[in-house]
Design a protein that fits this description.
IstA-like_C; Nucleotidyltransferase, domain 5; 13 helices; four-stranded antiparallel beta sheet
C-alpha cells in the first residue's frame, strides 16, 4: 500500500471516528460497506452534523474553512474544532464531482506557457552540475512547441524566453495563457491579477494579451503541462548534455524532428504540419524592432545619493536622498524615475561593486570640493592675476600635496 492510499484510509477512519479510543471498531462487513461507499458520508456523532446543511451551502459559495468555522462559533456557539470543519469540507470536495470541459482554440488564438523542472546540467564556468528548468510555450491549436532549458525563473529570463519563442514561431499569438509565476504576476487574483510591470510592457510591445489562469486552477493550460511532461519523459532520459547550450541545441533539433512530426494523441495530426500549413500564417507579425526588454525594481536612495541594483550603485540628484524610486534596467541602460519623471540615466554596469556617479547629482559643496584639483586652482589663480598664478604654480612645483596627511 502506498502513502497516498494509506493517508486516504486514515482520513476515512478519522471521519468515521474509528480512531477514537472509546469507539468499538466495526466488523468486516460494516468496514467493507463504509469503504465502498463514498468516504465522505458524515457520521451522526460528528460535531458538525447539526450544521451540515449550512456548511454545505457555504462550501458551494466558495467560502473558506477558517471563515466557516468562525461563523459557526460566532452565530451558533459551535464548540467543535477547526479540523472537524476541514474534514467535512474535504469530504464534500471528494463527494462532489468536478465536471471538465474541453476548451477549443482557433488557429493563432492562444499559446500556453509553463515551467518544469529540468535535468542537472554542467556549468561550464565551474564544472559543477547545476539545476535547470524547462520553459515551454505551446501553440494551443496546432500543439507546436517551443522549449528551452534555463538556469532561473527571473523576470529577465522570462522575457527573453518569450522573445525567443515568438522568433521560433515567427509570429505572436493573440493571447498567452500562463499560470501565476512571480516573474509574471505579482499578485494572483481571480478578478484583478497584478502583472509584473516589465511583462506588461513586453505584452504591449508584442501585442498579445496576458491571460493568467485562475488561482489553483492550472488545468486551464493543460496542453502545455502535458508537453512539459512529454519533454521530461521522452527527451530528457538517457541524454548526455555537455553544457546548457548543448542541451538546448539537442532539444531544438528534437522539437523539429521528433516532437513536431509525431501524431498527436488528440488532433491525430502532426503538430509541425498543422503549424506550417495553417496556424503560422494566422499569428500576428513580429514587430520590426523587438521591444526593449527591461526589468523594473523599486529602489531606495541612500545617504550618499546612490541607489543599488544587482550590487551596483547609480547616482541620482542629491535632493532625492531617502526617496523611493523606480529603476528600469535593460541590458545596456539604467533609467531611474520618480513616479513618471526621469531623474537619471546611466550605462548599465554588470561587475559587482561598480559605481556610476554623475558630478551634477552631488550637492554644491561636494561638486566644488571635487573640482579643486591643481588644474582648477591654477585656472582660478590665473583669473586673479599673474602674481597669484606664479605663486600658486610655485607651490604645486614643490609637490606640497604629497606632504599632506589625512
Amino acid at each position: 500500500m502506498g502513502r497516498k492510499k494509506a493517508q486516504a484510509l486514515r482520513e476515512k477512519a478519522i471521519l468515521h471516528g474509528w480512531l477514537e479510543p472509546d469507539v468499538v471498531l466495526p466488523d468486516n462487513d460494516a468496514l467493507a460497506t463504509a469503504l465502498e461507499e463514498n468516504s465522505q458520508v458524515l457520521i451522526k456523532g460528528s460535531s458538525v452534523a447539526p450544521y451540515a446543511d449550512k456548511i454545505t451551502k457555504w462550501y458551494e459559495q466558495g467560502i473558506q474553512g477558517t471563515t466557516i468555522h468562525q461563523a459557526l462559533v460566532d452565530k451558533y456557539g459551535f464548540t467543535g474544532s477547526y479540523w472537524s470543519v476541514i474534514r467535512y469540507l474535504k469530504a464534500l470536495a471528494e463527494k462532489t464531482p468536478v465536471p471538465t470541459t474541453v476548451i477549443e482554440f482557433a488557429p493563432g488564438d492562444a499559446a500556453q506557457v509553463d515551467f518544469g523542472a529540468g535535468p542537472l546540467i554542467v556549468d561550464t564556468r565551474t564544472g559543477e552540475l547545476r539545476k535547470s528548468w524547462i520553459f515551454v510555450m505551446t501553440l494551443a491549436w496546432s500543439r507546436h512547441i517551443y522549449a528551452e532549458f534555463i538556469r532561473d525563473q527571473s523576470v529577465a529570463t522570462w522575457l527573453a524566453c518569450h522573445r525567443r519563442a515568438f522568433e521560433w514561431f515567427n509570429g505572436v499569438p493573440k493571447r498567452v495563457i500562463i499560470d501565476n509565476p512571480k516573474c509574471a504576476i505579482t499578485r494572483a487574483c481571480y478578478h484583478d491579477p497584478q502583472v509584473q510591470r516589465a511583462y506588461g510592457e513586453c505584452a504591449e510591445g508584442y501585442g498579445f494579451l496576458i491571460a493568467p489562469c485562475p488561482v489553483r486552477d492550472p488545468q486551464k493550460k493543460g496542453r502545455v503541462e502535458s508537453n512539459v511532461k512529454y519533454i521530461k519523459n521522452s527527451f530528457v532520459p538517457l541524454k548526455e548534455f555537455r553544457s546548457l547550450s548543448d542541451a538546448n541545441a539537442q532539444l531544438k533539433s528534437w522539437l523539429l524532428s521528433v516532437a513536431g512530426n509525431r501524431i498527436h494523441g488528440t488532433t491525430k495530426c502532426q503538430p509541425l504540419e498543422r503549424f506550417t500549413e495553417i496556424e503560422q500564417a494566422l499569428l500576428s507579425p513580429l514587430p520590426e524592432v523587438p521591444p526593449e526588454q527591461a526589468v523594473w525594481a523599486k529602489v531606495k536612495v541612500h545617504g550618499d545619493g546612490h541607489v543599488q541594483f544587482e550590487h551596483c550603485r547609480y547616482s541620482v540628484p542629491y535632493t532625492l536622498i531617502r526617496e523611493t524610486l523606480w529603476l528600469k534596467a535593460s541590458d545596456t541602460m539604467v533609467r531611474i524615475y520618480q513616479k513618471h519623471e526621469l531623474k537619471a540615466t546611466h550605462a548599465r554596469m554588470h561587475h559587482q561593486g561598480s559605481r556610476a556617479t554623475v558630478p551634477e547629482h552631488q550637492p554644491p559643496a561636494a561638486q566644488a570640493y571635487n573640482m579643486q584639483d591643481p588644474q582648477y586652482c591654477l585656472a582660478q589663480a590665473q583669473r586673479i592675476g599673474e602674481s597669484c598664478h606664479v605663486f600658486i604654480k610655485r607651490l604645486f612645483a614643490s609637490r606640497v600635496l604629497d606632504n599632506l596627511r589625512a
